[in-house]
Amino acid sequence: MKKIIINITLVFLLIACGRNEISGTLSQVWKVIEQQPDSARVLLAKMDTPSLTEKEQAEYGLLMTMVDIKTRHEQITNDSIISASVRYYDQHGDKWHKAMAYHYRGVVKYALNNVPEAIKDLKRAETLAETLDDELLRNKIYERLAYCNYKNNNFPLVLKYSKKLLDSSKKMNDSIMLARSYTMVASGFANMEEMDSARIYILNSLDWIDAVDSLTQNEILCNVAAMYQETGEVEKAEQYLTDWVLNHANGFGYITLAHIRQKQGKYEEAVTHAKKSLECMDQKNYIHSLELLAELYSQMGDSSLAYAMQRKSKEFADSLASAYKASQMADWQMKFDEQKQEKKFLRQFVKLGGVIVVFILLAIAIIWWNQRRIRHLRTSLDENMKQLTHKRERISVKLLMGAKLFNHIKEQKPLDNASANDLQCLVEYFAQLRPKRWQEWQRQYADLSTAQYVFLILQDDLHYNDETTATILNIKRISVRSMRLRIKRKGKPK
């Protein structure tokens, strides 16, 4: 009997140790998955998957999907693993795991070109993530939603999520994401033909260009070159395209280069660049390239090729229109957001109902206290306004007197009857009139008197000679030299 009990105890100990080992491995994977996805894959490959509990299988599926996306994105063929995780977290998971699962299933569906379903999953993830303290997750969701809507040619929503991505990147202070998000916002404005706003954001992205990879650098350089090409600054455009070519970009920038050669009348070279731009996978720019080729062939007198390019462009645009239902998805997303707001309002209303009795009891006391405070604030405000008005009047009088004396000395009239207060008004007026020169004197000299500042006004600003200065100040010429010497002694050391 004792042997049986001992054996059973050993079995339970082994099971407990196994569970701890699995839990430790999963925790280790979470630590390395963002920076070292290959190491995370090695750790996951060592796990005994048949022995995992349902919860551990859901976490394993989420982590494996993340690793696949980060290491071999092109090899994803289905969403079965992540869908199993979504089903589990829908029933048993917390908000964070549920948001993560929906996000990565959306990424997988996007990779499988199922954009409508990807948007649905990402919108669910967005709803959950906005209630969590995880800025990185929100950042990833906004970026992916911007890509999905761009693929659907839904440019208002591209701009919306690009702006949300930019705000999120600023909160994270992530240099790489700031560069990418500025570029995405610029593209969003450009797609909506708001070119002035697009220029502002693409120029901002240049501040972060050193932090990003060569692909993003090339995208920024191409967009800046396109901006200068559109404004007719060809030399600047070509300079940025030179940097772009040196960085070995894809065909995106050739569109801009083709436009430049077209304006220069180099049609054959422009055709060569426009053909290279067809290698760009961007659908909108593909159509743009075809239209540009049609225009170039027309200018070269080859009407047959021009017609062929126009027909090809139209066929491609028609195929996109039939393939994507952008307006339907936009309506679905708007309804989704409305439903989210309605649910949020309902929850708030239910919470409000729980405290409404207490609110009624406190309402009278709050109103009485508020009215009393308002009366007090009104009294204080009236007093402050009186003081402010008085101060403004005093300042106005001083500035008026200062302006009068300044005009007086500009006419080289003596200051015989000016009091010390009048001279101070003159100095204060000059400080407002010539702020840069006043700041320079403040830096250059220490503890000058009012009379010495008046002397500086006459000598340094109005450039009067010693004789004129002595006449205005009603002093002897030798006193002018003495005053200049005293001022010089008060100069601050450099």
Write the layout of secondary structure elements.
Layout: H1 2-32, H2 37-45, H3 54-71, H4 80-92, H5 95-111, H6 115-129, H7 135-151, H8 155-172, H9 175-191, H10 195-205, H11 214-230, H12 234-246, H13 254-263, H14 267-277, H15 283-299, H16 303-323, H17 326-410, H18 420-433, H19 435-444, H20 450-461, H21 466-473, H22 477-489
Could you characterize the architecture of this molecule?
Mean pLDDT is 80; it is low at 5-18. The protein has helices spanning 2-32, 37-45, 54-71, 80-92, 95-111, 115-129, 135-151, 155-172, 175-191, 195-205, 214-230, 234-246, 254-263, 267-277, 283-299, 303-323, 326-410, 420-433, 435-444, 450-461, 466-473, 477-489. Among the domains are: 213-324, Serine Threonine Protein Phosphatase 5, Tetratricopeptide repeat, CATH 1.25.40; 330-489, no CATH class. The protein has 22 helices and no strands. With 494 residues, it is mostly helical. Helix 2 (37-45) packs antiparallel against helix 3 and helix 3 packs across helix 4 (80-92).
